[in-house]
Amino acid sequence: MEGNYDRPGVVSFFAVLMIISGVVLLVTQLLAVSQLNKASELIGVTNSFFQAAISFLGLLGIIGGVGMWFGKKWGWWAVGINYVKYGLRTLWNGFLLFYMFRENVLSFFNTTETIKWKALLIVFIMCILIFVLGTFFKTI
């Protein structure tokens, strides 16, 4: 027996979200092939590698969503692999933020008297504000 078949509501939500995001990524890739080829030159990778990486992420989203929907072990693993990329980015940003609050870095920027928790709160609020404004202006 693969699972207990009483799928939690959040799992259903994320399964649908992953399937939709995978499909949107693949459709966007098909519509923006030439722009993505230009972007691959800027990044310094080959067109085929860049297109394959985007296809992989789109397919991984669809596969992970379908696996989540049906409660398959491979779906759980696909979701884990899909979100590792976000986790690694989050980990990197966390290390960068931690580094920026080291005493020698604060001294370099002449911000040693800054209260760290207030500064982190301000950074967090600014990130949310940028996200909200970006989302708002993207829809206009």
Q: Your description of this structure?
A:
With 140 residues, the chain is mainly alpha-helical. The protein folds into two domains: 1-100, no CATH class; 102-140, no CATH class. The protein is 83% helix and 0% strand. It has helices at 9-31, 33-43, 47-70, 73-100, 103-108, 116-139. The longest helix has 28 residues, at 73-100. The chain starts with 8 loop residues before the first helix and ends with a helix.
Short description:
The protein has 140 residues and is mainly α. The model has no long low-confidence stretch (mean pLDDT 81).
Q: What would you call the structural class?
A: mainly alpha
| Number of helices in the DSSP assignment | 6
Largest sheet: none
Q: Order of SSEs, N→C?
A: HHHHHH
Q: Strand portion, in percent? A: under 5%
Radius of gyration: 20 Å
Fraction of residues in helix? over 70%
User: Which of globular, elongated, flat, extended, rod-shaped describes the shape?
Assistant: extended
DSSP, total strands: 0
- Low-pLDDT runs of 5+ residues are none
Keywords: Membrane, Transmembrane, Transmembrane helix
Transmembrane segments: 12-32, 52-71, 83-101, 117-137
